[in-house]
Design a protein that fits this description.
This protein is mainly β. It has one helix and 19 strands. The strands form five sheets. A four-stranded antiparallel β-sheet has the order 1-2-3-4, with no helix packed on it. A hairpin with a 5-residue loop joins β13 and β14.
């Protein structure tokens, strides 16, 4: 049997002091350096995984259950969605609240930065996807068409399309340029817990969905199965 690598054998277990069950959602930056988490009392924590797993930021909100979180690709911004409909963007460099975003008054179950970090998408029980300008905090669009709670959001690699998955099993593909749904897929009437774009290969884009029907469905193109 081969020896276990010291790097794998000397795993570090660390904590921010929260009790078991307090952390609800987590997000990892694209380069793996930063980890962010929401808590049930609305706090947002950010750790530097390459800096000794030290907590570098702790943001306070209005105390509402943190249901969703995302980190921008470059790790500069953290976004969170909350049970009271609140959506926040924090600047990880300055440690300050950048924007408290309007528009969604029901629980927010998913937030997602676009690849270029120009837009933030947020969605949940309002059955609407809000698009926000990250720099200004302005709400630039509402994407409507879902008939059930929205649980998951994912941007394509190019940022041209946004994918959403809902409680009724419907996955929708949205054109950001058109601000419209360009495809709806229904493999099941059971909840889609997660939707995710796959890495782009050549000119082809595809995505996967998974949910309460205990299966994973793959789609080869943005607008077709």
């Amino acid at each position: 049997m081969d020896d276990i690598s010291p790097a794998l054998d000397s795993r570090e277990i660390w904590s921010d002091g929260n009790k078991a069950g307090e952390i609800w959602a987590i997000a990892l930056s694209a380069d793996g350096q930063y980890l962010a988490a929401t808590s049930i009392d609305g706090r947002i924590n950010v750790w530097d995984n390459l800096g000794g797993s030290m907590k570098i930021r702790e943001f306070e909100t209005k105390g509402s259950f943190g249901m969703a979180i995302d980190l921008s690709v470059d790790g500069r911004f953290t976004a969170s969605g909350h049970e009271n409909g609140g959506v926040y963007i924090f600047n990880n460099d300055t440690g300050r609240l950048l924007h408290s975003l309007p528009g969604l008054i029901k629980p927010v179950r998913a937030v997602a930065f676009s690849p270029g970090c120009k837009l933030l998408a947020a969605a949940g029980d309002a059955k609407v996807i809000g698009l926000y300008d990250v720099a200004s905090g302005e709400q630039v669009a509402n994407l409507t068409g879902h008939g059930a709670w929205i649980f998951s959001l994912s941007w394509s690699d190019t940022g041209e399309y946004l994918l959403s998955g809902a409680f009724d099993g419907k996955a929708k593909v949205w054109s950001i340029d058109q601000r419209a749904c360009v495809a709806t897929h229904t493999e099941t009437d059971k909840t889609l817990w997660s939707v995710k774009w796959l890495p782009k290969i050549g000119r082809s884009e595809g995505f996967a969905t998974a949910g309460a029907n205990r299966s994973i469905s793959f789609y080869r193109e943005a607008t077709g199965g």
